[in-house]
Amino acid sequence: MLTCREMSELGSDIIEGDLRLSTRWAVFMHLKMCPRCTLYIKQLKLTSAVLQQLPLNTEAVDSAAILEKLQERDK
Ligand SMILES: [Zn+2]
Description:
mainly alpha, 4 helices, binds zinc ion
């Protein structure tokens, strides 16, 4: 079973889906019983998605619109 510490170390790999099946399963099981890590991964996902969508011209960033888009996609 993974610990919360291992979960945070796996963070970016989890987001990128860069995990072996056995690890993915362990992560899945951990998330099922650990609301804290579920929240952590959720925030990481949101952050990385937002970062990928940032336009080069930072003045044009409309974070509310980006968040809206992300929520739309999750439906
Ligand atoms: Zn945890």
